[in-house]
């Protein structure tokens, strides 16, 4: 791996480059959003090598912090306005009135590189106000999949490049947009592996299996419950903990899916504890306190930041063979097909009964996690081409 301090690209551009990471997520410390986690990780990695980097956020979210630029305008309220804005995004690929969504005139810094995290609708606003900056759409999910092709082309005209968190995400966008290969990039997410060995992160493995993720059907917690049911009927009774909420912005609110899952667990008499949404600082201890982490996504998971965190933990990882996850786990996880509770039950049983296999898998996972640093991810970001006359 390239040393974080030895990159010639970094040495040449540290004083001339300035990054903005545009995020619309809540900046609350307990927000477990992967988008926010990635933006913060890349921001810290840039600052570590002397590149000024800022979170470009709503004016009300700066809280006087020097590492934030309050350039996003408050969204006008009202149902009619929301419907009109959604229609504009679908048809035009942009939010209503670029002057109403962003205003960079009061910013203290001038970015050379702007990364729009999951926000294709803001491309036009930043292009018009920052004509000399390199604008990249940074995709954490499959984007623009349900809009007309003409809308995709409009967004494409406003950006200099597309960054996907996985080859899966990048290839999906390329197939639908026709973007030129030189404008298409992949920067895999990273993980702070040191957080999983830091003081306070250690925990005895009292739990057999844990799940961490949003409590929505596509994340597959119900598949884990079905797998635990299969095992229970075979006489293998395991203790499990499920952490998460329907929305990161509403950690204390349970949705219909979670309520139904709780009823299923009670009806089947399973030993499953629902612990609610965990703030990021509690994730290492939660995972280190388990023997197995399961990421049973049934949708095309763009990457799976939880899978990276599981690799860094003391636990062994089982995840589904979906989307971008196989790209990042290497040999550090067991892979099963999405939605196959019987296969998942078999994988859990294999690791539960074979301590040596479980330990070896967990060790391979930690080795994989150690190389997926934010310094490495930022090195990849630096390799993305700039506009003529700009620092890379």
Write a concise keyword list for the protein shown above.
single chain, alpha/beta, seven-stranded parallel beta sheet, six-stranded parallel beta sheet, 15 helices, 13 strands
Protein model, in words:
- The structure is a single chain.
- The chain has 392 residues and is an alpha/beta fold.
- The protein contains 15 helices and 13 strands.
- A 7-stranded parallel beta sheet has the order 3-2-1-4-5-6-7, sandwiched between helices.
- β11 (290-295), α11 and β12 (316-320) form a beta-alpha-beta unit.
- α2 (34-48) packs across α15 (374-382), α8 packs across α13 and α11 packs across α14 (355-371).
- The two termini are 20 Å apart.
Layout of helices and strands, plus pairs?
Blueprint: H1 8-13, E1 19-22, H2 34-48, E2 53-58, E3 68-72, H3 79-92, H4 98-101, E4 113-117, H5 123-129, E5 134-139, H6 149-158, E6 161-164, H7 167-177, E7 184-186, E8 207-212, H8 221-233, E9 239-243, H9 256-268, E10 271-276, H10 283-288, E11 290-295, H11 305-312, E12 316-320, H12 325-329, E13 333-336, H13 341-353, H14 355-371, H15 374-382
Parallel strand pairs: 1-2, 1-4, 2-3, 4-5, 5-6, 6-7, 8-9, 8-11, 9-10, 11-12, 12-13
Helix pairs in contact: 2-15, 3-6, 8-9, 8-13, 11-14
């Amino acid at each position: 791996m390239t040393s974080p301090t030895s990159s010639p690209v970094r040495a040449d551009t540290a004083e001339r480059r300035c990054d903005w990471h545009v995020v619309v997520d809540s900046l609350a410390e307990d927000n477990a959003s992967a988008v926010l986690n990635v933006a913060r990780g890349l921001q810290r990695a840039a600052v570590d090598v002397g590149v000024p980097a800022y979170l470009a956020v709503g004016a009300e979210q700066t809280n006087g912090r020097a590492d934030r630029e309050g350039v996003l305008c408050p969204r006008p309220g009202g149902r009619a306005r929301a419907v009109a804005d959604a229609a504009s995004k679908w048809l035009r690929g942009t939010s209503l009135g670029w002057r109403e969504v962003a205003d960079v005139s009061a910013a203290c810094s001038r970015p050379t590189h702007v990364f729009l995290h999951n926000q294709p609708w803001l491309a036009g606003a930043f292009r018009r106000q920052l004509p000399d900056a390199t604008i990249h759409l940074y995709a954490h999910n499959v984007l623009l999949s349900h809009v007309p092709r003409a809308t995709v082309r409009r967004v494409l005209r406003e950006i200099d490049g597309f960054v996907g968190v996985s080859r899966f995400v990048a290839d999906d966008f390329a197939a639908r947009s026709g973007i030129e290969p030189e404008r298409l990039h992949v920067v895999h997410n990273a993980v702070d592996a040191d957080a999983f060995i830091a003081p306070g992160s250690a925990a005895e493995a009292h739990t057999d299996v844990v799940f961490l993720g949003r409590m929505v059907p596509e994340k597959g917690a119900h598949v884990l419950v079905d797998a635990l049911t299969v095992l229970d009927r075979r006489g293998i009774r395991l203790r499990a903990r499920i952490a998460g909420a329907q929305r990161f912005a509403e950690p204390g609110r349970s949705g219909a899916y979670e309520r139904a899952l709780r009823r299923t667990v009670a009806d089947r008499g399973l030993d499953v504890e629902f612990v609610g949404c965990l703030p990021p600082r509690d994730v290492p201890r939660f995972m280190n306190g388990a023997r197995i982490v399961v990421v049973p996504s049934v949708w095309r998971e763009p990457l799976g930041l939880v899978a990276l965190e599981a690799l860094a933990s003391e636990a062994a990882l089982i995840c589904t063979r979906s989307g971008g996850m196989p790209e990042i786990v290497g040999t550090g996880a067991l892979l099963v097909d999405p939605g196959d509770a019987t296969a998942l039950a078999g994988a859990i049983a294999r690791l539960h009964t074979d301590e040596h296999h479980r330990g070896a898998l967990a060790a391979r996972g930690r080795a994989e996690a150690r190389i997926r640093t934010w310094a490495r991810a930022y090195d990849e970001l630096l390799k993305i081409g700039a506009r003529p006359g700009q620092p890379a």
